[in-house]
Write a structure and sequence with these properties.
The structure is a homodimer of 355-residue chains.
Chain A lengths: L2 H6 L16 E10 L12 H17 L1 H4 L3 E5 L5 H9 L5 H4 L7 E5 L4 E5 L5 E8 L3 H16 L6 E2 L3 E2 L11 E8 L1 H5 L3 H10 L2 E4 L12 E6 L7 H29 L1 H17 L5 H16 L8 H10 L2 H8 L5 H19 L1
Antiparallel strand pairs in A: 1-5, 1-8, 2-3, 3-4, 4-5, 6-7, 8-10, 9-10
Helix pairs in contact in A: 4-13, 10-11, 11-12, 13-14
Chain lengths: 355, 355
Amino acid sequence: MNVKDVIYNNFVTWMDGDAENGDIVISSRIRLARNLREIPFPHLLDQAKGEDCLKIIKGAWQESPAYQQGQMELETFDHLSSLDRQMLVEKHLISPGHAETNSSFRGVVLNQDGSLSTMINEEDHLRIQCLLPGLQLDECYTLAQGLDDELESQLEYAFDERRGYLTACPTNVGTGLRASVMLHLPAMQMTGQTNQILQNIGQLGMTVRGLYGEGTEVAGNFFQMSNQITMGQTEEEICTHLRAITVQLVEQERLLRERLQVDLKYQLEDKIGRAYGILSHARIINSNEALSLLSDVRLGIDMGILQGIKPNDLNELVVAIRPAHLQKRAEEEMDATGRDIKRAQVIQEKLQGIQ
Amino acid sequence: MNVKDVIYNNFVTWMDGDAENGDIVISSRIRLARNLREIPFPHLLDQAKGEDCLKIIKGAWQESPAYQQGQMELETFDHLSSLDRQMLVEKHLISPGHAETNSSFRGVVLNQDGSLSTMINEEDHLRIQCLLPGLQLDECYTLAQGLDDELESQLEYAFDERRGYLTACPTNVGTGLRASVMLHLPAMQMTGQTNQILQNIGQLGMTVRGLYGEGTEVAGNFFQMSNQITMGQTEEEICTHLRAITVQLVEQERLLRERLQVDLKYQLEDKIGRAYGILSHARIINSNEALSLLSDVRLGIDMGILQGIKPNDLNELVVAIRPAHLQKRAEEEMDATGRDIKRAQVIQEKLQGIQ
């Protein structure tokens, strides 16, 4: 396999809409932060030390069964263009911050379907991630832990008996685990209940962020919910807790959708119909409007108001309309207006292909 | 023939979009105001005098060849429901004010295709009208004058050698002639030039009004332009003058459309595409929004951006989505929300039927 195959493939595994609760829980993610003992954290690495660090990681990595069986590939960022790295961000496989450098000692490890990945020298030396469709936190944890075990057998992690895994940012010390789910909550938004609910979630130790994690806006009614606390709880407890809150939110969203269908049937069908009508006929559309309308269309599909479109197609579109993916498809750099035109074209082709 | 046939037919002749300049000049109208000598103007008529007046008109009317050949029919408003009268307003065959009463001495004379009509005891005893598609002011005048001559041979009109035809409102004294055209000027609106142009038109002795004449709003970029002056000019001069200004406006609108297609190609196609998308998928739509979007779609057809829809269909839709027509079609009285739902359905059916 090749990292670029994953970058240029339209589909990665989290986009599969048929997973458990996949209508509301788009994806689940587990991320483990790990660092090497006696090597400075990434933000303190100079070129020479950075290369040493990469060498150690690469060595351990090449001993792992995943590498030896050709299931995963490592690529450093000096071999990926800025557009390639941005496409990885848009596919949720690396963080926006990590994509910013073309450093030769920073990079990514990926498997074929994008379910398992590791960021090298992002905020920590290693950020092992598993990203699956639907509500699959336990499965994510098992897979991430498997890769973690393989690497740990070759590496000396910075670990303290009392504090647990040591990390560059103190908010990750302990388990080093961040569990998150990407939720699609349009009914909650439409009924104006999101703020109240998000406030309650905060009191339960959870954080809610936008489509691309920390510092990004909520768009298209997509919410990323993750645990705030990484210490004083086991990995299993963190996953169980997040899963329980997610299930509650899913039930609440379903209830609100049913109520909408009863109380505001025509208004709902109107909103969804218009969204579909605009998406299939616009010639210029910006990212936020497109996400918002795709969210309406997604709701229409989930509620059986629209037919013929699959959740997979929409998950794919949400990524395909982002700037780097659009420019890759057009094979040229484009300004905002150019992208808005290309975006409308991509959406139209996709929706026409489906009909 | 029967007046109700014209009321319930979706199509009347002015809706024909293939007439001369019919892409911009929707219709032309000539209206002649006439009154009977020695009978008070309609607003001064009590029931007894009103019935006398109607009797005289009916008598003269029954002598006319049009009546005797069964080409035109007279109906008084005590035989037409409020909804029926409203449908005549929506088809531009009587004025909104005339529709308000169910008086037994007020009424209408119509021919089969709605091109020739006469309001009885509206503001004047007789308002003879001819309404044709496209720019056909001379043809309208010839037809209206023909009917006028037939009636004048049987009736004594209130006529003064110095002042001409006498009318209830002094603004109509003289020729009693009002010539008007219904214009569709979307490019003028989009480029923000309407106000300036309308101001200039005012200085040329023309008045601009909305879709349903005096006191109605401009909607869907439809403008009704008519002569302000009825005295001191012959009928032919009035028609020639209005025709000349209309031709200028048509040329200006065409020029602006060409410029839009060059300078704002994508924005234009986007606006038109979205309008079509919303109209074909909305479930609730109010009258103003529908008119405005139909105007965009009409522009798209005229400019070759949209295919498969005929101007006739859109002219028909502009009338079919009005409140009385919607309620007639639904065969029930409906509140505003009910009409908004029915309107969306009627538009969708029409557009689907076309595609």
